[in-house]
Amino acid sequence: MEENNNNNMMSYRQKCIDFGVHTNKFLLAKMDTREVEKMMAEQIREVGGSQWLYKDINKNMKNGNFDPYFLREHCNLYSWREIFFDAHFAGDSWFTLESDQYGEEEDYFSWADPFTRFITIPVQLTQHFDSVLALATAKIEPELQWLKAKVYFTNDEILGNEAESKYNLETMISDLNEPELVIPEGFLMGHSLRDHYDQVNLSFSDVAHIVVEVYQKGPKKLEELSIKAILKNRISIKQLPPSIQKKVVHGMYAIKDSTPKNITDEGKLIYEKIKRVFSKK
């Protein structure tokens, strides 16, 4: 009997997925090309008007890459996309379904649940935003408008966590202010801030760049500004000294370096905490 119930549950889940996939396919075919082009132009303006930089950031988001020299531009684009998503897919106009990694207790998630949004929206903003634009701009007959309230989006907790930790400035600041070690009530073991940064593939230098960006109180180092200008103007780094080439690839900061002077006192405390976090094995 239990096996039959599980089969029925999986059958219902698959029916929902099939319905969502077919609905999306229909809507994608109705994309408003002109409107999509306008939205693309807005995104390019959001990163400073550079088309190649937009393409680079979009590629980074798809691949989960973190670029310390264009951190602010990545965050600006992510924020723009998040506002766009909420404006065009408000309320229960979309749905998602669990994958095997969430067990068998629930068959679907509520769109209003924070966890549902966390595992779904960041994935759409980084992995599938072309489809999000197409679905949002779809022009269909009045009698079929109800289909635009039945959009199906996939989810992934790991990708969602990584996207939020690398491109959402509010989440990045929140992570910086997490304690070095968290032990949940009733547990003997906990998880460290270092565990989190390892999970989302952020190095010490990456996190140090975030600290300096968030708590900056004076101009950045001339060396960092020069590297950004070289990258922005797409100048080859082959003729640069090896030490600078290394910083282009791996970032400006190393644990052995002293705390930057161009950040606030709060920033210095957090920088020192991050050094401790990454110094522990």
Description:
This protein is mainly α and 281 residues long. It is built from 13 helices and 4 strands. The chain has helices at residues 2-28, 33-46, 51-63, 71-88, 114-127, 129-137, 157-167, 169-176, 193-199, 204-214, 222-232, 242-250, 265-279, and strands at residues 94-95, 151-152, 181-182, 191-192. The strands form 2 sheets. The protein has a two-stranded parallel sheet. The protein has a two-stranded antiparallel ribbon with strand order 3-4. The protein is globular. The mean pLDDT is 90.
Notable characteristics:
mainly alpha, two-stranded antiparallel ribbon, globular
Strand content: under 5%
Chain-averaged pLDDT: 90
Radius of gyration over all CA atoms, rounded: 22 Å
Largest sheet: 2 strands, parallel
Helix % is 55-70%
- Class by alpha and beta content: mainly alpha
The counted number of beta strands is 4
Ends apart, CA distance between termini: 50 Å
As residue ranges, the low-confidence spans are none
Strand order of the biggest β-sheet: 1-2
Number of helices: 13
Reading the helices and strands in chain order gives HHHHEHHEHHEEHHHHH
Which geometry do the CA atoms define? globular
